[in-house]
Every structure is written in C-alpha cells, then in structure tokens.
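so the lab meeting is tmrw and i was supposed to have these ready like two days ago... anyway. pasting both below. for each one the top line is the aa sequence and the line under it is the structure tokens. i havent really looked at them closely yet so no promises
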Amino acid sequence: MKKVYIAAILILTLVFAASTQLQAFDDVQNTIAREPSVELKMNPTENNLDVVTTGFKAETIRFELFDISGKRVKSFTSDQLTSTGETYKIPLNEVASGIYIINITSKDVKLAKRFVVKR
C-alpha cells in the first residue's frame, strides 16, 4: 500500500511540474506574439514594398527610407500610405536600383530592415 501511495504522489508531482512548465511556455509564447515585428514582402522589389507590421498599437507609424550611404530618400507616416490591415504599401517608383534601409518607428518601437530595389 505504501508503494502505491508513493507512486501516486510521484505521478501527481510530475503532472503538476509538467503543467507548470506548459503554462510558462504559453506565457513566453504570448509575450513573443505581442512583441512588435516587421516583415518585408516582395524583397527584392521593383515598384512597391509591402511592409507587414505585427504587434504595433493603434498609433501612427513612421517609415523612413535611407540609401546605403545613409541619405534619407523618402519618409512617410502610416496615415499617408495605402494599407490593408497591418500591411502598408510603400511606393518606390522614384527610387533608383540599389540597397536601402527602412526605419519603422512608433511611440515605443524602432526597427530597421534592409531591402533591395531592382529595375
């Protein structure tokens, strides 16, 4: 009878430990999911760059394009751009072929991504 009792306590301890670890894992996943991130679609691109923002609060986002030498080429706010949900379309008709950096900033977030314009 003692062995059954000890085995039951051991099993309950293992189940509790596993459920605690799963809860901790879920907490980490939820934190990661809320972290703001940016994905560039159509990279390299020819005419438009689609910028998919995730986890940004409902506020104005600023997009600044720099050439590889650091010169600012264009600047937009989220209010000035065509968007579908969290995807913003950056027009690049007047931008020459080359490598560029896009800085995406909001009140609490500052991110940078590299992209290529090919003509």
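ok protien two:
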Amino acid sequence: MENQDFIYLKKQRYDFTIIDNDILRDERVKHARTLLVYWILNFHTDRQGVECKISLEKIAKRARISKTTVIQGVNELVELGFIKKEKRQREQKDFFYNQYTILAKFKNIKT
C-alpha cells in the first residue's frame, strides 16, 4: 500500500526506541496512555520499524496499564492516523491477532 502522505521509518539497530516528535507535538493526543501505547508498539516493530504483532495483554504488561486502557490508546492512535490496525487470522481458524502498522507523518523532508 502506498500513500504519499506517509513514509515508513527504518528501525535503528541501537538499543533504544525513537518516537516521532509529531505525535508529541500533536495537540489532538489527549492522553498519556496514547503516547505510552505508541511507544510500546514502536518498541516491538519489525526490522523495518513498520509492522508489529503484539497482544493487547503484552502491551498492557509492558506499559503497566490495564488492557482496557490499552484498547483506548490503540483506538485513539487509529483515529488520529498514527497507526493502522488489521485483524489477522492464524492458521488455526479460531485464533485471531491484531497487526499494527506504524504510520509516520512528515513534512518538508530533505533527502
């Protein structure tokens, strides 16, 4: 999927996680839980720093918040356009999981 409004970040190979400043500056983000969930999702992305497959329970445990609070944070991130959430099905037909895609907005990018 290509969208000219977004670019994908390449995950660094260092032992830290980079959070896009746009989400920190975005006044539409009303809750710290949303920033915390975004950070956890970024921490668990693939090598390209784009996709993440992590359970709500694991996010809650890492963030030290409830599963309900995680769901609220995820929903806000989706609504604001910082992530995309897709329901996926494993080979076992009754087992589903969410795949998250980190979408980073940038303006005036210099190459």
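from a quick look at the 2nd one: The radius of gyration is 14 Å. The longest helix spans residues 67-80. will dig more after coffe
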